[in-house]
Design a protein that fits this description.
The protein has about 30 residues and is an all-alpha fold. Helix content is about 95%, strand content about 0%. It has one helix at about 1-30.
Length: about 30
């Protein structure tokens, strides 16, 4: 159970980070 929870936590953190990167990337594209 602990391993499963840690994996889901890592996935949630990864998704959150990827969304932040996508948002930053879109803002940079708008500057162009």
């Amino acid at each position: 159970m602990e391993a499963k929870e840690s994996v889901s936590g890592l996935l949630q953190n990864g998704i959150r980070l990827s969304w932040q990167l996508i948002r930053m990337f879109e803002l940079e594209l708008e500057k162009l």
